[in-house]
Specification:
By secondary structure, the protein is an alpha+beta fold. It contains six helices and six strands.
């Protein structure tokens, strides 16, 4: 094998290797939304563009595509969230027995705990309760903020139209 053939094969394998290492813009946008979530950041088109190093026009297109594919959901205009895909929830029950033991059934699994263990589990799961509270509160605040912003924009347009109308009819001010 001569030198030029070896160089050509090396260049070809380098090119195909770099192609495999390339990540699509859709995946980069999805990864950016996931990374922002893991950092407790809100995924807006701007934060996703910054995190993915893609242009806003590309980010907008990819966000739309990911929403259409069901991988992301649009919370409000310009704010996105991952769609969590889990199996159907299993049946869950908790029984406190007369002797104080606690039985927790999850699907086909049974966990028997002492009261102390149940309290420890409750403390451990308390973080999830707080997460749900914060998430719901944040969504409610974002919704209110969006509605307020839309109201302010509408009022600004109305004021602008009134000012224009007054300028075109100065005799209205003299009455």
């Amino acid at each position: 094998m001569n030198n030029s053939t070896l160089e050509a094969q090396t260049a070809h394998s380098h090119d195909t290797g770099s192609m495999r290492n390339r990540i699509s813009s859709t995946q980069r946008v999805y990864d950016a939304v996931r990374d922002l979530r893991e950092a407790d950041q809100i995924a807006t088109r701007e934060t996703v563009a910054e995190a993915s190093s893609l242009k806003l026009s590309i980010v907008d297109d990819r966000l739309r595509s990911l929403v259409d594919d069901g991988r992301l959901k649009r919370l409000i205009r310009g704010v996105y969230e991952l769609v969590e895909v889990f199996p159907e929830p299993r049946a869950l029950s908790c029984t406190i027995q007369s002797d104080g033991w606690i039985k927790v059934e999850l699907g086909d699994e049974l966990l028997t705990m002492t009261p102390s263990e149940a309290r420890r589990l409750a403390r451990a799961l308390g973080g999830f309760v707080e997460d749900v509270r914060v998430i719901e509160s944040t969504k409610a605040h974002l919704l209110v903020a969006t509605e307020l912003a839309a109201s302010v924009e509408a009022q600004a347009r109305e004021i602008k139209a009134l000012r224009k109308h007054i300028r075109t009819q100065p005799d209205l001010l003299e009455k």
